[in-house]
Amino acid sequence: MDKVTYVGNADVNAIDHLYQSYIKDPESVDLSWQKFFEGFDFARTNFEEGGDIPENFQKEFKVINLINGYRTRGHLFTKTNPVRERRKYEPTLAIENFGLDASDLDTVFQAGEQIGIGAATLRDIILDLEQCYCQSIGIEYMYMREPERLEWFRNSIEVKNRPKFDIERKKHIYKRLVQTSNFEAFLGKKYVGQKRFSIEGGEALIPALDALVEKGSALGVEYFVMGMAHRGRLNTLTNIFQKRPQDIFSEFEGKEFDADGAFDGDVKYHQGYTSSTTTREGKEIGLTLAPNPSHLEAVDPVVQGIARAKLDAHFNDENKVCPVMIHGDAAVAGQGIVYEVIQMALLDGYRAGGTIHIVVNNQVGFTTNFHDARSSTYCTDVAKTTLTPVFHVNGDDIEAVIQTIEIAMEYRQKFHRDVFIDLLCYRKYGHNEGDEPKFTQPNLYDIIAKHPNPKVIYQKQLTAEGSLSEAEAKSIEDEYNNYLENEFETARKNEKAVVWDFLSKTWEGFRHSKPSDFESSPETGIKKEKLVELGRKLATLPEGKKYFRKIQKIFDDRLAAIETNNLDWGTAEMLAYATLLDEGIPVRISGQDVERGTFSHRHAVVKTEDNEEEIETLNMLSDKQAAFTIYNSLLSEYAVLGFEYGYSLATPKGLTIWEAQFGDFFNGAQIMIDQFITAGEDKWSTQSGLVMLLPHGYEGQGAEHSSGRMERWLQQCADENIQVVNTSTPANHFHLLRRQLVRPFRKPLVVFSPKMILRLPAATSTLEEMASGSFQEVIDDPNAKAGMVDTLVFCSGKFYYELKEKAAEMGVDNLAFVRVEQLYPLPQKQIEAIVAKYNAKNILWAQEEPANMGAWSYIAMSLRHIPFVGITRPASAAAAEGSKKLHERRLKQLFADVFQYASVAAK
Predict the structure, then answer these.
(1) What is the dihedral of CA 715, 719, 724, 729, to 10 degrees?
(2) Residues 162-178: pLDDT tens digits?
(3) Of the residues 60, 420, 594, 679, which has the maximum number of CB atoms within 10 A of its CB?
């Protein structure tokens, strides 16, 4: 039974209920109420019907209301803003608003037990509450519903109050501030006018991260995965991740990157890094900072995916891996991806044990003031959607920042839930160092110009209290400045800038690809006996359980397909996964409705009819197999695709798949594709083997359920960055999935997967086709005879089957239909060989997509030396028509355009 922890008003009946519970079992009420009832002679109070409630009893609960007022609204009356006056809120926390007055200030109230100070005067109770809730730290937590979390927070805040740091700790904090401040000053002096997106004004971030790592290590964290935008990134890399300043200076010098092969690289404040550091207690901690483009919050799900992969592959304990997200105030309020990621936090497929969210609150976004940047009170109000606690802390009060960080870390380790820290600070300069902020915020920047930075503030504090002498402070500064000068001189001698693959240790044993790697595919067959063995296991449901009749039939048909050697798409796909799992390669799939499959072809998870027990036959292959995991995702493309991309970065020896419900839905994640998936290797030298399944095909289902936007993907293809395929047989799909894992490098794979041919009788394969051979980039027409063919029709995907059916209907034998299964990297030599083989008069590219979509423009541009004629639907603004009859009419016209060459040949 949950304990009752507090009462939000002075309802005597509620208090009486609490007291009756206390009489029966003291442990049934919160400890603060136990103390209250022990000290207050409640039992002697006469509650006869119609009797008056004693005045002192009424006032006790008015004081309790006051206490709860501070707990719920104290954050509105804090001293958390270092450069601006707080907005005014009503009603205030004045005692008159709670039915109390000045005459009560020296009265002793038992309600002091509620905040851990025992019976105390109202004056002392208020003083304690002011210290807890209305100084440099504001806290929002009372909306949390679980009594355990509420009690933990109160004990952490009200009982512990402000900690006292010893002199050694104070000096360590000061050294961190010196490093932070002086690094920025050094860059500003040496590289005048260059963009660095300094952390000046928010210097507290670096000591905060330092404290986070130290505290986390003490509480069992062994690995931190961090993500952040560009502001303060260089400082974080240098002073937290221990990237050598000389390497950053070399990037400021504009030197070329020292990397193998063609590599464009990225600006210095976007790059990632991985390192290890030793804490003051001597523990080694792993640190990864994920690369991030200028799309500020896009890295959020990537960080979650990397952290989850680390948990799954190595640590298997949420205490040991901690994701950390560093946000900007405008971005955390304005970017929808933040909401999507927060909603993932407690889901089985995506949880990573709770994230520490630190918002570097500059109180301005580029040039937009905070009151134009959001409708909510705080930039962090999105956290309340999942009842996540939020701290607001003054960035000038460095010890308050450290306390907040440590409480947040304790909370995360205790409850494995998200927690937000709103670090209120300011931005000393404009958006970048060449920007003039007084154009848009003249008053604010007048204040900022006169405002001392956190290093100066803390030095004065330590000097005043006798913890640091001026000579010691100067010595600390001189030592660090000399270090930077030495690094600067070394950087000037370096010929090239260093490129750091931020997960290089994870990718040991892999290399980057070469163009020659794509001339053919490696062998990926599996012995027929093994295929039959695995096929029987994945197609056999455990006995003694009640299954839905249609499910049983699907599995019976799947088993029959294995036995009769006639495999459909779903069976071949599942068999590909089974062979990988049997070889010790883990497989992870996620997306909307992937467990069953949007088109009910997969059924990787079966639920029993009576109690919905989940059965996964792919996890019943053997005791030595790798793990198969599959998750129906939340209704998100952007965050989920980003998560799986991050997961693939940290799992090169596993198969990671995201499936769109329909192919065109991927465009909800276009930022993730443009900035990470297609460009990540070129920018950051990091590989990904992520597979994206995009159901594609024109079947009269309207503009939003037809096209996976093949043209968009092909437009982004260059430098062997991704692979784009449109497979047409189950066997080729089997080899394709296996090919992802046998190469010594990784590439994202975009698969325009089928809908209609999932169950098309003509689109089946045999076990023999999977037992030997490899993925076929191009499939020649098996029935065509070179001497009789005068028209060569290249096509892709399911359109092949429709063309072949129409040709058979018409009795046409002068056309050969060749399937280009891999569109990028384009198998040019194989296409040229087929063209040479047939020596046809007419060479067509036929597609079901409109002329301005699909692969036609790409094919025409890539193979200019081949005289292709394009056969397409008319160019269109929408991807497809919404009318079934219009679809059929346009398909009929497509056939007419293709088969006019048959009639011409006949004449």
Answers:
(1) 140
(2) 778 999 999 999 999 99
(3) 420
